[in-house]
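Long-time lurker. I teach an intro course on protein structure, and each term I like to show students one example going from raw sequence to a predicted 3D structure in token notation. This year I'd like something fresh instead of my usual example. Would anyone be willing to generate the tokens for the chain below so I can use it in lecture? Attribution to the forum is fine with me.
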Amino acid sequence: MSGQYDDCTKVTELCPIEATIYAYRPNLGANIFFLIVFAACGIIQLVQGLKWKTWTFMIAMTLGCLTEVIAVYLTLKHLVLTLGSAYSRLPARWYTWIFIGCDIFSLVLQGAGGGLAASADTQSTQDVGSNLMLTGIVWQVVTLLLFAALAADFFLRAHRNRADLTDAAKEIRRTARFSLFLAGLVLAYLGIAIRCVYRIAELAGGWGNEIMQNDAEFIVLEGVMIVLAVLALTALHPGHFFPQMSPLKRTAPNGILPEKDDVSGTETPERM
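-- Reply from a regular --
Happy to contribute to a lecture. Here you go:
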């Protein structure tokens, strides 16, 4: 708001919605739809997490849309351990700590910036908060790009040396479940990445810019992208499609979870 609308505290005839930062009323139908999808997926993730004991993945997904990217980061460690650590540039355990640490740092920057911008009494203070938020989102995108580069490098090296993979790893690569799981990860990653790039554009123009005031773009590039990511990680849950992430593996002689969903066998220590 500016000028004659500086004293406005709510939308009225004298304080039109066009004078607000967003300049539109949020689409109630779209938001109800998103709420239903996220609530349903959260419950399903909780049930699947308890069933398969994929604790860290479950926590990342059920915490909500701030942390679904952490669930994606968690998988690379287990993919490396499953297919072969020799093809990874980094020790498998480092992926978890590096990328989750970077993402948490990004969220801290965004949260601090948002709080500062919301409580600012001066334009300069609001600008500092906005810049902090933007820095956090840019940092998140850089982290996503680095993750993609290392993941792609690992899979290329594993593919080039596929003849040298263990028999168990070769069997896993040939299963439809594994292929579907990787496809779901790629879809989730792309949804999250598109959303983050959109957020950079949304904030880069300052509060009340044209992109920020476009409700349709916000619904598609923010809400729909995260819905796709959450649906992919829920429908293609690692407990069923990539059981190597679960400590409840009742393995066949070749180390692959049987087609029948029977996980009543011996537990192995959790490796999350």
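Some talking points for your students: Confidence is low (pLDDT under 50) at residues 250-272. Residues 34 and 223 are 7 Å apart (CA to CA).
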